Structure formats: structure tokens, C-alpha cells
Amino acid sequence: MARPVQYNTNDKVKLVDLPEGYAGEGFYATSFDKVVGLARKNSLWPLPFATSCCGIEFMATMGSNYDLARFGSERMGFTPRQCDMLLVAGTISKKLGPVLRQVYLQMAEPRWVIAIGACASSGGIFDSYSVLQGIDQVIPVDVYVPGCPPRPEGIIDGILKLQELVGNESLRRRTSEQYKALMQSYGIQ
Question: Rounded to a whole number, what is the distance in angstroms from the first to the last CA of the chain?
């Protein structure tokens, strides 16, 4: 009797490409920054900062139907010191802005930020005195995911865009004058 479930029948599985380099019999040579970029982009540790409906969509993204773990984000961390990808999902009030900034500062370098949904990106429909009109007023943002709330596919697309950014990032970017000027514009030393 045949088994009812067939494993490994998905022919659309995409393997990660090797970085540029020289391959020989029994060895592979490439540059150090390409190897580090490959490792970083495929092992992002997300820290969810969810405050409203976008958080529910993010929970669906982590569920079995969408399975964010396929993209190297297996371990969901809830302490900033162990995570390198901050996922801000939902409305951020002006009182919550300093808390978000403190969480960002507690994360180890290198760190990346994704603004999920209209509220985190631009304040959304809440154009009031108490709502922060985009988290980029408090911390730098690497990727914006549009939508109110965005679908899990959109969140996955945002994480794939961030992986592309992380994989191509130079090891020296964080010590460049341009990066230091960006951090100083946010008051971060």
C-alpha cells in the first residue's frame, strides 16, 4: 500500500546560491565578507514589537501555513540582546516611542528594522497628537512593509528584501562616516 503523504515532492525548492569564488576539488575560496553576508542573511533572529492588528498578521506569518522559519528566522526572541532584526508591527504612540528606542539600543550590532503596516510606517489612519507618524522619527528603518494590515505574504516579502540587503552589506558599512552620521541624526552614539 502506498503512503498517503509523499515527502519532498516540491520541485520549486530554491537552493541558496554560493557567493562568488573559486571552487576546486575539495575546497571553495571566496571573500570573507561574502561568507559573513551569507551567514547573516540566513540566520536573522527576529524580535517582534507588535502592538495591534499587524501583530496578528505577523503571528500568522510565523504559523505553519506561511512558516517564516524557512527563511532562517526559526528562533523568535523576546529579549533584545539576543536578536538582530526588530519587527515593529502596529501603532506606536508618542509615549511608546522612547520604549521602542530603548529596545533598539539594547540590540547588538548589526541590527536591522522592519516597519510592518501603515501605522508603523507612517502613522496610518491615526493622524492625531498621540500617535507617532512613522517609527523612522525615533529609530532608523531598513525595510517598510505596506498594508493595513499587510498580508503574511507581504511580511515575508519584506523579510526577503531585508535578507537581500543584509547579504550585500559590506562589513565596513557600520564603521563608515555615512553610517555614523545617520546614527547621530537619531541621537545614537
Answer: 66
- 4 backbone dihedrals φ, ψ, rounded to 5°: -70, -25
CA dihedral (157, 8, 13, 55) in degrees, to 10, reads 10
* 171 contacts: CB under 8 Å, gap ≥ 6: 32, 33, 36
Q: Which domains does the chain have, with CATH numbers?
A: 42-185 (3.40.50.12280)
Say how far apart CA 160 and CA 163 lie, in whole Å.
Answer: 5
Instruction: Tell how far CA 1 is from the center of its chain.
Output: 45
Residue 4 burial class via C-beta count within 10 angstroms: exposed 0-12, middle 13-18, buried 19 and up: exposed
Pairwise CA distance, residues 69 & 44, whole Å: 10
89, 58 in Cβ contact below 8 A?
yes
Torsion from C-alpha of 117, 120, 145, 43, nearest 10 degrees: -120
In angstroms, the CA 100 to CA 86 distance is 10
Provide the b/e sequence for 108-125 (b: ≥16 CB within 10 Å).
eeebbbbbbbbbbbbbbe
pLDDT digits (tens, 9 = 90+) for 2-26: 555 555 556 666 676 777 778 778 7
- Using one digit for the tens of pLDDT, what is the confidence trace for 100-155? 999 999 998 899 999 999 999 998 889 899 999 999 999 999 999 999 989 999 99
